[in-house]
């Protein structure tokens, strides 16, 4: 299944999270509180002391390729969609500049700060539906209904 490209107006939300906050949960709470229907990460800079990531070699039948990181890491990239079944990828660099990245499962504990800009495609709605071809719930993009009360 593929979702056809669709245009939309853009609304931008900027926020900063502080030491000890869990970044993924904080972003999901923000999305829920604001009732955002098609949110995505525009940019993020900051640092974390923990992260749980699924690596790229995971498949629908072997999703256990997971790493748990602890230490001090710079967020060099955070991208993805933030609908209730968020799909985020992150790249982190350690004190020697070595990078690691993967699919965010959670446990992103902010070290000093996380400055995040979230976009919302205000005319669209993001959902996820199981894709038989990949074995994973994949993004479905729909026009936001004029009668769903969220426009």
Automatic annotation (TrEMBL):
CDD domains: DUF296. InterPro entries: PPC_dom. Signal peptide: none annotated. Residues 7-142 form the PPC domain. It comes from the Eukaryota. This is PPC domain-containing protein. It comes from Stegastes partitus.
């Amino acid at each position: 299944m593929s979702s056809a490209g669709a245009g939309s107006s853009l609304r931008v939300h900027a926020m900063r999270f502080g030491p000890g906050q869990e970044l993924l949960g904080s972003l999901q709470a923000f999305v829920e509180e604001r009732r955002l229907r098609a949110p995505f990460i525009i940019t993020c800079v900051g640092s974390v002391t923990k992260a749980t990531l699924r690596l790229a070699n995971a498949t629908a039948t072997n999703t256990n390729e997971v790493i748990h990181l602890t230490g001090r890491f710079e967020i060099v990239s955070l991208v993805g969609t933030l609908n209730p079944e968020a799909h985020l990828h992150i790249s982190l660099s350690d004190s020697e500049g070595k990078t690691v990245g993967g699919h965010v499962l959670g446990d992103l504990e902010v070290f000093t700060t996380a400055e995040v800009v979230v976009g919302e495609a205000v005319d669209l709605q993001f959902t996820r539906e199981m894709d038989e071809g990949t074995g994973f719930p994949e993004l479905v993009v729909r026009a936001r209904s004029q009668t769903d009360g969220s426009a």
